[in-house]
Write a structure and sequence with these properties.
Arc Repressor Mutant, subunit A; mainly alpha; two-stranded antiparallel sheet; 5 helices; single chain
């Protein structure tokens, strides 16, 4: 079966978003429920500036959306299927080998 270039680009974009531990934590937090940036920064114990950069990356990748709520902005997964995909991906990786560490785990990059 032939894979379309757009399929590869979408998967690569998702992979780049997951390549950073903070973005993974953000996606997992948003999988649980939509949240405001201040609450996410507190929950993840990171600065609001750092959080903002990661949220911008996830927005640019099309994985999260910003929803205006009055004078505040709430973030949520762009599609509920992303939450299911995160669960399935985590389960698949854990099923293969949970004790492995990727040699590039410390490398940072954005989508």
């Amino acid at each position: 079966m032939l894979t379309l270039a757009s399929d590869i680009e979408v998967l690569a974009r998702f992979g780049r978003a997951l390549a950073d531990p903070i973005r993974c934590r953000l996606l997992l937090a948003l999988r649980e429920a939509p949240a405001h940036p201040a609450d996410l920064a507190d929950a993840l114990q990171i600065s609001r500036t750092r959080l903002s950069n990661h949220l911008a990356c996830l927005r640019d990748c099309g994985l999260v959306t910003a929803v205006p709520v009055g004078r505040r902005t709430r973030y949520e997964l762009a599609d509920p299927r992303l939450g299911h995909a995160l669960d399935s991906l985590r389960d698949a990786v854990v099923a293969v080998e949970a004790d492995r560490v990727c040699p590039d785990a410390e490398a940072e990059g954005c989508c």
